[in-house]
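Appendix B. One record, verbatim.
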Amino acid sequence: MPQLSAHDAAFLYSDTAHSNANVTLIHIYNQSTAPGGRVRFKTILARIASRLDQLPILRRKLRRVPLNLDFPYWVDDEQFDLEYHVRHIALPKPGDWRQFCIQASRIHARPLDLDRPLWEIYVIEGLDGFLDLPAGSFALLTKMHHAAIDVENGNQVTTLLHDLDATPPADPPPAPWFAERPPGVLRMVRRGVAHSMGAAARLAGPLGRAVRRAAPAALSLAGDLLLRPHKLPATRFNSVVSPHRVFETRRFMLDEFKTIRGAVAGASINDAVLAVCGGALRRYLDLYGELPESSLAAMAPFYLRPSDGTAVSPELTWLRVALGTDLADPLQRLAFIHGQTASSEHLSRAVGARELSEAGSHVPAATLALTAKLLGRATASIGRRSPLAHCTITNVPGPAVPLYLCGARMTYFSAIMPIADGMGLVFAVTSYDGRIVISPTSCRELMPDPETFAQCVRDSFQELLAAAQVRPAASAARRRAAPRSAAKAAAAPASKPPRRRASASGRRSPTIPAA
C-alpha cells in the first residue's frame, strides 16, 4: 500500500480544532445544455461511481502507525460508502450569491472524518438568484484534505468527472472493486522502527540544519520565521484564526489581465494578479485605518527552471513578495512587484518543493508531527509581532476550454483554501475558459465583511485596468504629436534650449517603463 509522503503528512499533522487543511473546489453549471435541460442527482452519482477506479485515492483512507513511528499508509476502505461522500442539498429561496458563499464556507470549515477517505462532494441546487448565472444553475463542491490532493500540479478530480463535449458516450457500469487487505500492525511497527533508525543515523551529523530543512514548505517558512525574524508590520490577519470561515469571489476576463500586464515591460499575468491583490489589501485596511506605512507581503508560488538549461521540469517554490501596498499609483505597484519576480538573485535564494520533500523523508514521523504543532503555535505567536508574510496567494490551475458534467456546461470554477494561525488570509486564483477568478478566504472574526473585501478586489482591478488603458493611449498621442512638433521646431528660429525646472524636492519623479 502507498505511504503518505513527508510533504503531505505535514498538512495532516498541522490540523487543529479550529484550523484544518481542507481544500474546496467550487464548480457551477448551466444545466440547460444537458439532455432534457436537467441533470438529476442520481445521474451525477452514477457518473462518480463509474469513474472511481480511475482515481484510487477516492476509496482509500489513512491507517496510522502506532506511536507515530512512521508516516500513515493509504489503505482501501473496506466499508466504502459512496453515498456518504456524495451529498445533495439545496439553498433556500431566493438562492442568491450571499447564501451560497455562507453555505460553501460552512461546508469547507467542517473537518473531514479521518477514519474515512478524505473527501466529500456536495451537489447544491436552488441557485436561482445569481446575477450573472442562469436560473436553475447548480454547484458541485468538492472538499478534499490537502494531504490527499496535489493542488499545484493540476486538479485530478475536475479532470476525472468532466467531459469536453455536452454529449459524450454513455458511462460504462462501475468496474468490480474488491478492497485490498491492509498491512498488519506488527508489519507497520517493524517498518516504522527500521525507518526511524535509518532516519536517526542520517540525522546524527548536522542535526540542526537537517531539521530546519526537513519539513515541507509551510514548516520551512515557519522555521525561517523563528531563526531569522523579519521586521514586517503585523495586521489583523496575522492572528489566531477562528473555526468560522468566510469566502467571496470576483471574476475577470483573461484578456483584461493581458492588457494590465502590457502596461509594464516584461510583466506577467501573475504579476498583474499580485498587484490586484495588493491593491485590494491596501484598500481594505485603509477603510479601517489599519494600513501600515511600509509594504505588506504575500507568500506566492513560483516555478523555477534550472539555470543551466537542462531539460528538467520546473520546481514549485514559495517566495515572499512585497505587494507595494505603500504605493498609491497602481502601475508603480505593478512595476515594483515585477522587479521582484524578475530578479534572478531573489529567485536563487528560494528552496524548491522537491528538495524540501526529499529532506523531509529523512525525518521520523513523530518528529515531523511534533515540529508541525510547535512551529504552528510559534508562527501565530511571533507573527503578531513580526510576521513572515501577511497573506498567501496561490494558483489553482483550471482548464482553458469549456467542460461539461453530464451535459451541463461548467460556467464557474474557484476554490476555498485553508488558512492557519498567523496567516489568516489566502487568495485562491483560478483560471477557466478565458476568465480569472480571485477568491479571498479568511475567518469571520478577522474579516466580518467579506463582501466589502471582494469589492476592494474589484475596485483594485478596475483602477489597474484603467491606468493600463490610459498609458498606451497617451503614448500613441505623443507619437502622433511628435512629427508636428518636429516640423514646427524646424521652422522656428534657433534659440537657447529652455532650462529644466526641478520639482519641489529637486529630483525628477520616477517613471515606469512603457510596454
